[in-house]
Design brief:
five-stranded mixed beta sheet, de novo design (two linked rop proteins), 316 residues, alpha/beta, four-stranded mixed beta sheet, Nucleoside Triphosphate Pyrophosphohydrolase, globular, 2 domains, 9 helices
Length: 316
């Protein structure tokens, strides 16, 4: 009994400092993430204020309304609202603005870019530590909410490329969904999970594109009747590999009994940017700290698995 106590005491002496140090480090990372979000929120608010000044000069009620929506949006809806505003600002003819106002708008936009990058760096570091097994097992994060990346397109000289995609929520016999883990080549440290699917080719319809993408990315030969939907539609503005995209994504649900996934048909970009794949249960999606797209996958997947009612719903 005494020897067991001594062993336990020895373990506490060895592990205790690491646990305490890791908990303190995690606490500092959460503080850093909160501060970074406050700075980003302030930068976005300043952009909204400058945008309203621009809208008054240009007599653009729609631009002012978009700035108001972005400023008032709740956190879950903030990305979409801010991206809407970014799109309107990208289309703005700035030659009509006074040089001082144009410069102020450009400065406000660049401050948003910098604040977003600082915020996402803080989120990345916090998530990396939270994903350690011992950190999860010992619940060192406590009740601190899981931080999330803030994804909005950065101002670019190029006009965002319109991209229509067909995606497949591929589900196995245990109601687990297949996701790939990948990264943006311009930001290799920010990993995220996403569904099967890709861009629709010219003159190709959505269902045909979904079937083709499923075969290319998984090796499965699905037929049109295997696809339910489109159950969801996602619109997003983002940057990937240095280019800006205005994406329109249509999601179908398909079931499979196949256990093996064949990724040998990946194109060069997919081979370079996709690290792995796995099947996720709804419970795992709800519990994970990882970044998953669409963001509402865990929330909406159960209803999608219950059957499609013929309605295509918006999803983030």
């Amino acid at each position: 009994m005494a020897s067991a106590f001594l062993v336990l005491l020895g373990l506490l002496v060895l592990v205790g400092p690491w646990v305490l140090g890791t908990a303190n480090r995690l606490d500092r990372l959460h503080v850093r993430t909160d501060a970074a979000w406050a700075a980003l929120d302030a930068a976005l608010a300043r952009r909204a204020v400058v945008t309203r000044a621009v809208a008054a000069v240009c007599d653009q009620a729609g631009l002012r309304a978009a700035a108001d929506r972005a400023e008032r949006a709740a956190r879950p809806d903030r990305e979409a609202a801010e991206n809407e505003l970014s799109g309107l600002l990208a289309d703005l003819d700035r030659s009509a603005l006074a040089p001082a106002l144009a410069a102020e708008l450009s400065d406000a936009e660049q401050r948003v870019v910098l604040a977003r990058r600082v915020h996402n760096d803080a989120v990345r570091d916090t998530l990396a530590l939270r994903r350690w097994r011992l950190v999860r097992w010992l619940r060192l994060a406590g009740t601190a909410p899981t931080p999330a990346y803030f994804e909005i397109a950065e101002p670019a000289a190029d006009v965002p490329t319109q991209r229509v995609s067909a995606r497949v929520v591929l589900v196995d016999g245990d109601d687990r969904v297949l996701l790939f883990e990948g990264f943006d080549p311009a930001r290799p440290d920010e990993l995220f999970w996403f569904t099967v699917g890709g861009g629709v080719e010219p003159a190709e319809d959505l269902r045909a594109a979904a079937l083709r993408e499923a075969h290319e990315e998984t090796g499965l030969r699905l037929v049109p009747d295997d696809l339910a939907g489109p159950v969801w539609k996602r619109q997003a503005v983002f940057r990937f590999d240095g280019l800006s995209y205005a994406a329109e994504e249509w999601f179908f649900v398909a079931r499979t009994t196949a256990a093996e996934v064949d990724t040998s048909r990946f194109n060069d970009l997919e081979r370079r940017t996709i690290l792995r794949h796995r099947w996720w249960s709804v419970a795992e999606l709800r519990a994970t700290d990882a970044t998953v797209y669409p963001v509402q996958l865990a929330e909406l997947l159960p209803d999608a698995l219950a059957g499609w009612d013929g309605t295509t719903r918006p999803v983030r």
